[in-house]
Specification:
Layout (H helix, E strand, L loop, with lengths): L2 H7 L11 H9 L6 E2 L6 H6 L3 E2 L23 E2 L2 E2 L2 E13 L24 E4 L2 H12 L8 H14 L3 E5 L2 H10 L4 E5 H9 L4 E3 L7 E10 L5 H11 L2 H11 L2 E2 L10 H6 L7 H4 L3 E2 L5 H15 L3
Parallel strand pairs: 6-7, 6-8, 10-12
Antiparallel strand pairs: 1-10, 2-10, 3-4, 5-8, 5-9, 5-10, 5-11
Helix pairs in contact: 4-5, 4-12, 5-12, 6-7
Length: about 300
Amino acid sequence: MFGPYIEKHGAPPEFATYGDSEEGLTKMRSGYVVDVGHPCNQSIPRWIDSGLFRPIDTSRLSNWDDVVPSLKTLDRAQSDGDQWFVPFEWGQTSITYRTDLFDLQGEEESWGMLWDERYAGKLMVIGSAGDAWWCAAIYAGVDFDNITDEDVEKVNALLREQQPMVRFYTSDVTTMEQALASGEVVAGMTWNDTATSLKNQGLPVKFANPKEGALTWACGMMMHKDAPNPEMAHDIIDSLISPEVGEYVINEFGYGHCNLKTYDLVDEARLAELGLSKNPSDILDRGVFQTTQSDELLTRLNRDFEEIMAGF
């Protein structure tokens, strides 16, 4: 993942992980200082408004000119000539299911698969409102640009209906893969990488293309205002957006990459197998992106989802 950085500095950067962007921001607000953080597009405004970050000097990024233009301007990524966010990987939240264990009965793939009572106790959902709430909102037909109180209650009701059918909630990719591989669950909300990993192991799985649309997202890097190593921080970012790292990201995880030159390094048949294209805009332009919301609404959604997971 950090090949060019390691070539320059002799070792990979140290890093800490978090369950979702909100957890990471909370940790930094409490005084944890990093050089760069890794949020996704829906969190960019919230991270900027925290006052903990500073613009990135794109003139110090050798790969910047090759980044997909539409990803450079996501959700306040650019503001007043400053670049606050540099995109890295992008993908979708959808359903990975065992084609030998889940019977579609001739129906189209749909988010309703995760509400199928036939498989109660054998379904899995990502344990974060940043994914689960929004996927349920797609299923409910909510307009992301105009979310009302009624919409919130409608989605919450769907999630409460689903809760007794869920074997477990998790954000841990290894847990997702093991549960699907063993047949403990037959369908689960996942990111691209779970389906790609299981396919690479020869297991009969598919990453669904729900008729209502999959949740599409892009994640990337932001620089802390007190970054102790700003030069190395720019090197980390430049490494991640390089074509050689992008080739690894596509083949190992099935994610799309921000660099247009990456797609020339991957066989067209492999891209098609992973649901990608030589022109990433073919998929990005059709995506259902989570939109920027108020702090009050996001706080409410996180609180509600935590209560729903707990059975309330």
